[in-house]
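Bug #77: duplicate submission created two jobs. Keeping one. Sequence:
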Amino acid sequence: MRSYIEERTVELARYIVENRCTVRDAAKKFGISKSTVHKDITERLIKINQNLAEEVRSILTENKQERHIRGGCATREKYRHQREVG
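Kept job's structure:
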């Protein structure tokens, strides 16, 4: 694996752990695709740093369990905004 990919992978993982953010948030911050972030932190990170990979995995699991709540809040906000404007 190329060194810049390893560096990016570790940097992504640290960002996710420090900010408890989603894959989408990390992708936006680093200017890369969600697919790249996902591949980095689920496949590459485990080969680079096992402990960091476990921390990231727990955050991603938590995000996955909460995503239906975030989606519902976003939808509610969308329709509330439409009522106010329209």
